[in-house]
Design brief:
By secondary structure, the chain is mostly helical. The chain has helices at 4-13, 20-28, 40-80, 90-99, 108-118, 128-139; strands spanning 87-88, 126-127. The chain has two domains: 1-68, Recoverin, domain 1 (Orthogonal Bundle), CATH 1.10.238; 81-143, Orthogonal Bundle (Recoverin, domain 1), CATH 1.10.238.10. A two-stranded antiparallel ribbon has the order 1-2. Keywords: Calcium, Metal-binding, Repeat.
Length: 143
């Protein structure tokens, strides 16, 4: 159980000087009759009344965006992974570059260098995680 005093002390330790009477008034509205403090469910209700529900919605939206990004990256990976083995080889990259009409498609040494530049485990091919890291570094440059 969390009392008004407990919450006041916790806020003070966090460097947040809350007015005790305002804090007491806000918390008392969420304490069930006969209790000396907030039970877990009461604390959750207090949190939601103070904007926690919006935060939960924001987190859900963020999770949806991450899921969509992951799905988009997976689809892009499949374009390059022509044989569906879960890896992008130099040959597969060359085929896609050729389809795109890029001049790099004729230079296998250059294509192999592209693979090496993102191949963290040095197995000579790019797996989905390496592809994802590479795409994120291109899409969201480090600042």
């Amino acid at each position: 159980m969390i009392t008004v005093h407990d919450l006041s002390q916790a806020l003070t330790l966090l460097g947040l000087d809350a007015d005790f009477s305002e804090l007491d008034s806000t918390i008392q509205a969420h304490i069930k009759s006969g209790n000396d403090g907030l039970e877990f469910e009461d604390f959750v209700a207090l949190h939601q009344s103070l904007g926690g529900q919006q935060q939960d919605q924001d987190q859900d939206q963020c999770a949806d965006e991450i899921s969509q990004e992951e799905s988009d990256l997976s689809e892009a990976f499949k374009v390059f992974d022509e044989d569906g083995d879960g890896y992008i080889s130099a040959h597969e990259l060359q085929v896609v570059l050729r389809k795109l009409g890029l001049p790099e498609a004729t230079e296998i040494d250059r294509i192999e260098q592209m693979i090496v530049s993102v191949d963290r485990n040095q197995d000579g091919r790019v797996d989905f995680f390496e592809f994802k890291d590479m795409m994120r570094s291109v899409l969201v440059p480090n600042s």
